[in-house]
Amino acid sequence: MTHVEHGFGPVWNRESRVLVLGSMPSPKSRQAGFYFMNPHNRFWPVMEALFDRQIGPSIAERRSFLLETGLALWDVIASCDIQGAQDASIRNALANDLRPLLSASAIGHVFVSGATATRLYRQLIQPQLNEAGLAVPMTPLPSTSPANARMSLEALRQAYRPIMLALED
Q1: Looking at the chain, which terminus has fewer C-beta neighbours within 10 angstroms, N or C?
Q2: Organism's domain of life (predicted)?
Q3: What is the pLDDT of residues 52-107, one digit of tens each?
Q4: Distance CA 156, CA 162 (A)
Q5: Residue 84, by phi and psi: left (phi above 0), alpha (psi -120 to 50) or beta?
Q6: What is the pTM of this model?
């Protein structure tokens, strides 16, 4: 078990309309300093399928895609104890504070990727938002992690379609 600090902040701007949250970046993502950088994670292929466009492998291309499409990206957890990239091993999680980001942007919907991230969002973040009077709908999504290999890319694309609907609102 290793204590891990998130290490990098959210990708967003004032025009961001949808926030997608993971749990905690994997060791490969932390090493790269950006989200979903494990080549076996299917987040970026799902985004390419959903938006019907090539995104490119560089951090600059991925960041640009997010900002152009109105997506913001961050994680539920600011720090925790974790074994490798195993969400099931997460202990002592401290949440990121979403209130400043939600207050300073056009984000009207939050999507949370994975069961652990969803549970921790409901446990740690939702009470903060309720207390601050920030009523932003949240939709849980399946994880794009290699640990969720039972879902095909097409099934993940279908599961992530509500993001497109939220961007159209």
Answers
A1: C
A2: Bacteria
A3: 999 999 999 999 999 999 999 999 999 998 888 787 788 999 999 999 999 999 99
A4: 11
A5: left
A6: 0.95
- Partners of 18 in the beta sheet? 71, 109
Residue 68 CA to residue 104 CA, distance in Å, equals 17
Structure tokens at 122: 């409901």
Q: Which pairs with CB-CB distance under 8 Å and at least 24 residues apart come from 121-124? A: 121/21, 121/76, 124/76, 124/93, 124/94, 124/95
Q: What phi and psi values does residue 105 have, to the nearest 5 degrees?
A: -130, 180
Gap between the Cα atoms of 148 and 150, Å rounded: 5
Q: Which residue has the tokens 């204590």?
A: 3
Q: What does the chain come to in residues?
A: 169
